[in-house]
Design a protein that fits this description.
308 residues, alpha+beta, Gyrase A, domain 2, RNA Polymerase Alpha Subunit, Chain A, domain 2, DNA polymerase, domain 1, four-stranded antiparallel beta sheet, 9 helices, 31% helix, 31% strand, elongated
Length: 308
């Protein structure tokens, strides 16, 4: 796969090749649909404006009415930090001025993308104070305000139509390509643009992971219907560690000699032993046991809790 960044952290072109004939459209369509519909994101979902009982109220001393202000809030791109599910942004300004998302009080749980560019409203009265609080939440796709309304919402809380998707546009093209002398292959070119809260690479990885989980589920179900049991994946690194010989662990001479006398030759055989069994070996003491436990821990392995 090749990658060209067109706009820093927002727009990129990903090239996937070579693909068998017909697979360019197959992959392109499926990835595009998932990217546009199923990538989770964040958005402002509710707002409370001091002195405003509902979304159709007039705003004295402000150029915009409540509906226009709400529309501008919907365009503010936000991101919740870490695993935070919901957070609140507060704003309080006074006097004639242009209000943007940069006027929100700092909240370490919320990151605002390009706040200076996110226009909210303009105060035209020098004595006017605008005070409001916004709730930022997580979700998938587009949700109507009617679906986001709280059942026991306080008076003045206004729910917003929320577009949680961080993906703005996805386009793809399929071209012919070649591998050596073979010309019957395709190249898939995906162009992804996000709102800046995540990168094109991150959403591409999420989309591929979602598709893979569904394909895996279908495969597992079909294997169950056919009575086929899948063999568990082999952890090659673990197998390498278990195949190590005792002399490769770097044990003390006493511990190594005791294990050799007990005919324990590999790490796998050692991990099947309990501490009680090792302590029964002639001349084997607590220092040798501690030495073995420490060496196994370095490999991420442990002695058995009970005999197999």
């Amino acid at each position: 796969m090749q990658r060209d960044e067109l706009v820093e952290k927002r727009r990129a072109r990903l090239i996937i090749e070579p693909l068998p004939r017909g697979y360019g459209s197959t992959l392109g369509n499926s990835l595009r649909r998932v990217l546009l519909s199923s990538i989770p994101g964040c958005a402002i979902t509710h707002v409370m404006i001091a002195g405003v009982p509902h979304e159709f109220a007039a705003l004295a001393g402000i150029l915009e009415d409540t509906t226009e202000l709400i529309f501008n809030l919907r365009r503010v791109q936000v991101k919740l930090v870490g695993s935070v599910r919901e957070a609140t942004l507060s704003l309080k300004v006074t006097g004639t001025r242009r209000v943007t998302a940069a006027d929100f009080a700092e909240n370490p749980e919320v990151e605002i993308i390009h706040p200076e560019e996110s226009y909210i409203c303009e105060i035209t009265d020098s004595k006017r104070t605008l005070e409001m609080s916004c709730i930022v939440g997580r979700g998938v796709g587009f949700q109507l305000a009617a679906d986001l309304k709280h059942k026991e919402a306080p008076i003045g809380e206004i729910a917003l139509d929320a577009n949680f998707s961080p993906v703005r546009r996805v386009g793809f093209a399929v071209e012919n390509t070649r591998v050596g002398k073979e010309t019957d292959f395709e190249r898939l070119i995906l162009t992804i643009e996000t709102n800046g809260t995540v990168t094109p690479d991150e959403v591409m990885a999420q989309a591929a992971s979602q598709l893979d989980s569904y394909y895996s589920w279908v495969r597992e179900e079909q294997n169950r219907f056919l009575g086929i049991e899948e063999e568990p994946e082999v952890d090659e690194e673990l197998q390498r560690k278990l195949a190590m010989r005792i002399e490769d662990l770097g044990l003390s001479a006493r511990a190594e000699n005791c294990l050799r006398a007990a005919k324990i030759k590999t790490v796998e055989e050692l991990t099947k032993c309990t501490a009680e069994r090792l302590m029964k070996i002639q001349n084997f003491g607590e220092k040798s046991l501690v030495d073995i436990v420490d060496k196994l821990a370095e490999l991420g392995l442990f002695l058995a809790e009970k005999e197999e």
